[in-house]
Amino acid sequence: MKVSYDLIRKSIAASLLISLGNYALLKLGSPIGPIIFAFGLLGVCYMGLNLFTGKCGFMFQDKINKLDLLIMLIVNLLAGYVFGFIYSIADAEIYQSALTKVSTWGFSLAFFIKSLLCGIIMYIAVYMYKKNTNLGIIYGIPLFIFCGFQHCIANIITMGVARTFDISIILCILGNFLGSLFMWYLTRDIVIDTKKKKK
User: Fold this and answer.
1) What is the pTM (predicted TM-score) of this model?
2) Measured in whole angstroms, how far is the alpha carbon of residue 129 from the centre of its chain?
3) pLDDT 10s digits, 17-27
4) For the domain with range 5-198, which CATH number is right: 1.10.1740.10, 2.10.260.10, 1.20.1080.10, 3.40.640.10?
């Protein structure tokens, strides 16, 4: 099995951009932080980077290799945690903020549902970007943050800042994945019809 260097490189870059947005969120809080966080996903989309939560809902329609998707996830998680840890060294102020945030998470049905809802929003945001509008990202990212929905890559970054680990990340990954696929499933005829019209 040969792993593409570009796949790894673009996955690390995606984690870096999301980590910068998450840094702003921890540093500034509401209402500014959630708005600035959108910078991360905008950068990921414009630069064509590999973010698991932005790709998983498109695995069927874009024919994304399942192994590549798994590698994206692993690299996003590892790189995200490392970037978060580095930020905690650079800025002690956000360490406590991150620790407090992680302490509110739990392995529960409510947490899973919040992860599902985040996955739905992520799918819509990226889908709208693919249709040449940034509005899904500009409004969608603050929406999921203000509502307290859970994003697995942002969460692992926060864990890195807090220098801890929480098993809730498993629920978050699963929820983001299933939420994105669920939204794709509900709208797949619309996606197919749109592609047919272009042809």
Assistant:
1) 0.91
2) 15
3) 999 999 999 99
4) 1.20.1080.10
